[in-house]
């Protein structure tokens, strides 16, 4: 699976960048898998309780929903780092290489700005939940700052991933004859 990286011998800075990209990717993958397993476990428990014991946890919908939101937000950075979001290749492929790189950097900057705005607003949302002591209007009365934290963490890691992608694309501008988008097969970064 392709993961964005900078190739070549660029010294300790490039090594650090590639390692930080892998670290963000691993954190997001582990968190996404944990959210998925939690969601599956909650649903499976609910099925067993309802079919075998004619009872319910009375919170499976709520917590499975929280896990789904966490899974979605935590997977954004990984999808970005692996180049899995749709791209307008038909336009970029027909541009001269220098213009194509400039367009990619422009897209990176716009994406970073929008993602940073999302992080800012979600952080404000989280802080207001903590201050007000909001709880879910359900039987569990879950403090809402807990599930909202996944939103802040996921969007924060997405901002980091967008910064990493921008740095890779800027470094490619400086590299004469550099080709491609920065997405390459996973290699050892040592």
From TrEMBL:
**Subcellular location(s) per record:** Cell inner membrane
Alphabetically sorted, this entry's keywords are: Cell inner membrane, Cell membrane, Membrane, Transmembrane, Transmembrane helix, Transport
Q: What biological process terms from GO does the record include?
A: C4-dicarboxylate transport
Q: Where are the transmembrane segments?
A: 23-43, 63-81, 102-120, 149-171
Span of domain Tripartite ATP-independent periplasmic transporters DctQ component = 39-166
InterPro entries given for it?
DctQ, TRAP_DctQ
**Principal localisation:** membrane
Name of the protein in question: TRAP transporter small permease protein
- Organism of this sequence: Celeribacter indicus
């Amino acid at each position: 699976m392709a993961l964005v990286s900078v190739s070549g011998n660029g010294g300790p800075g490039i090594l650090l960048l590639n390692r930080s990209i892998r670290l963000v990717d691993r954190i997001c993958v582990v968190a996404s898998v944990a959210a998925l397993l939690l969601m599956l476990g909650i649903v499976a428990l609910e099925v067993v309780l309802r079919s075998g014991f004619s009872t319910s946890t009375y919170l499976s919908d709520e917590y499975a929903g929280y896990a789904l939101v966490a899974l979605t937000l935590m997977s954004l950075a990984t999808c970005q780092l692996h180049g899995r979001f749709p791209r307008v290749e038909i336009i970029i492929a027909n541009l001269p290489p220098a213009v194509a790189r400039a367009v990619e950097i422009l897209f990176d900057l716009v994406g970073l700005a929008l993602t940073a705005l999302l992080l800012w607003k979600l952080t404000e949302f989280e802080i207001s939940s903590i201050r007000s002591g909001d709880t879910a209007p359900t039987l569990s009365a879950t403090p809402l700052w807990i599930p909202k934290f996944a939103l802040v963490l996921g969007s924060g890691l997405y901002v980091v991933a967008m910064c990493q992608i921008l740095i890779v694309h800027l470094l490619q501008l400086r590299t004469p004859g550099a080709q491609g988008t920065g997405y390459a097969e996973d290699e050892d970064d040592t």
